[in-house]
Design goal:
Strand content: under 5%
Structural class: mainly alpha
Distance between the termini: 59 Å
Largest sheet: none
Helix content: 55-70%
Amino acid sequence: MKRTQIQLPDPLYESVKKTAARLDWSIAELIRRGAEYMVQCYADAEAQDLAWQPPAARKLGEFLAPQERWREIANDPTER
């Protein structure tokens, strides 16, 4: 087990202290459990982010606008 120091704003420290006392845990136990919970919640999200791939392109057919008008259409807000 590693030993570390953290800094908490005074109101948060008081809330942590009261919660730990209510649960009959030490402050260290409350912080450990909170850290374990956060790691568990975000571990899957991290794995999903790494595995994300863009969706496959769908065949939508040919463009209706001629290629020479693409720039004009893309920059004209009334065409949207």
